[in-house]
Amino acid sequence: MVNTTLEPNAAKRIPPAGGNDKQDRRSDDEKEYSGRTRRAEAWARVSATVGAVVWAAMAVMARMGIARIGEIELLFLFAPLVVVPLGMELGRALRATGRLGEIGLKLQPAGAALAVVAIWLPVGRKAAIMALGWLAVCLVIAVSGAVEFVRALWRDGPRGARTTRIVVGIGQMDLAVGGPWLVASRLGMRPMGIQEPIGLLTAVHFHFAGFATAMIAAATLRFVERRGERGGQRWLKAIVLMAAVMPIVVAAGFVISPALKMTAALAFSASVAGLAVFVRACGTRAEDRTAGVLLQVAAGAIFAGMVLAGTYAVADFVGSERLTIPEMARTHGILNAMGFCLPGMLGWLIERSGR
User: Fold this and answer.
1) pLDDT band at 233, cuts 50/70/90?
2) Of the N and C termini of the chain, which has fewer Cβ atoms inside 10 Å?
């Protein structure tokens, strides 16, 4: 009886062989992940900050006439310099980006620098060769997104995060379309008869409406899922998936038919407007006050931007010239890039870092 009584206590005091080793391995894995997380956060923060400084300097030089860079070119450069590093860090924070995505984040500064040179040079072979550097980064990120997309379809992630990972994967794969359009634009190509500035605007479209919007949508869905708000999850999942898929359909409409282009543009505008409602609601419930303000600013900006986008889609279909492409770049483009993508990503990054 004595032995029977003491054996359980001894078992508690002396773990079975290998028990400590297993705990140590878990501890080492957690430490490694934590260290990798801190390094990735620091890298993304520095890359985006330096990129913002470079972009601002180029905007000033363009304004002064020192650099011959147009509004659409400046709008595009905001993506590789600022939006992509923030978006990749957001995807990593959502645990929806693998090691290949981290490699893409490491390569981003070099690719962004080559994109700047490509835009600075006159259209031609040299500019296209420089643009290949950014295309390489886009392809690495897109392959990472494709891997995560397939994994998410094959098996569900922790805490029901499958839809989040699918949307992040789609957003990253959008860069595989945006990158080639930059190369084609700088080479002076006219694929399928598409003229400039539509070619470069297609690259802008897939970087902002595709990649950046998908990242913000995924973060919004994850926030709602973590709070356990099942009432809104069903609607939000449908909105998020539509917002992620519709940019591809909009681009296809330019080639297939004007009716498809208008219908897809209206559907995309409606889905992002619906997303804006959820982003604003999340902003009011955010734990970090700064994050909450940024999210509400992003929601207001993109709602106004989508009204403009829907109006332009209808006007373009009926042949009206009341809204021109340069006007849309100055209004909708700025609302989307500076008003939605930047504060939206920053808001979710701040909120998640606070958690």
Assistant:
1) confident
2) N
What residues contact 355, with CB distance under 8 A and at least 6 apart? 287
Which residue pairs, CB below 8 angstroms and at least 24 apart, start in 246-253?
246/271, 247/174, 247/205, 247/206, 247/209, 247/210, 247/213, 248/174, 248/177, 248/210, 250/205, 250/209, 251/177, 251/202, 251/205, 251/206
H/E stretch holding 51 reads: helix 19-64
- Burial category of 217 from C-beta neighbours within 10 Å (exposed 0-12, middle 13-18, buried 19 and up): buried
| Among the listed residues 166, 267, 251, the one whose alpha carbon sits nearest the alpha carbon of residue 217 | 166
Neighbours of 99 (CB within 10 A): 10
Rounded Cα–Cα distance for residues 115 and 109 (Å): 10
- Residues 321 and 325: their CA atoms lie apart, in Å, by 9
Pick from 119-133, 235-249, 252-266, 321-335: least confident: 321-335
> Do residues 95 and 355 touch, judged by C-beta distance below 8 A?
no
Taking alpha carbons only, the member of 83, 330, 312 closest to residue 207 is 83
Q: Count H helices and E strands in the chain, helices first.
A: 15, 0
Question: Are the C-beta atoms of residues 115 and 182 closer than 8 Å to each other?
Answer: yes
CA 256 to chain centre: 26
Instruction: For Cα atoms 298, 300, 304, give the angle at the middle one, nearest 5 degrees.
Output: 115
> 177 Cβ partners below 8 Å, 6+ apart?
202, 206, 210, 248, 251
